[in-house]
Amino acid sequence: MPFVEAFVPSIALGLLFWYVMKALTNADRKERQAESEADALIENQTESDTRSTRE
């Protein structure tokens, strides 16, 4: 069983690394989505302002 004891720290660090990377990528994805929604909202407001000044 000493080989199992040798692999446990590596497996634990690997799982911790995976969890942290997953959290980072999820946060980045959500931030990009929020930024995209904000840009679309600003663009729609700009278009509606442009249309109202033309009329």
Unreliable segments of 5+ consecutive residues: none
Number of beta-strand segments: 0
Helix content, binned percent: over 70%
Number of helices: 1
SSE ordering: H
Which structural class do you get from the secondary structure elements?
mainly alpha
The CA-CA distance between the termini, in Å, is 81 Å
Major β-sheet annotation: none
Report the radius of gyration as a whole number of Å. Answer: 24 Å
Summarize model confidence as the mean pLDDT: 91
Strand content: under 5%
* Global geometry: rod-shaped
Report what the structure shows.
- The protein has one helix at 2-54.
- The protein has 55 residues and is mainly alpha-helical.
- The protein starts with a helix and ends with a helix.
- 0% of the residues are buried.
Itemize the secondary structure elements and their pairings.
Elements: H1 2-54
Which labels suit this protein?
single chain; 55 residues; mainly alpha
Task: Give a short synopsis of this structure.
The chain contains 1 helix and no strands. The protein has one helix at residues 2-54.
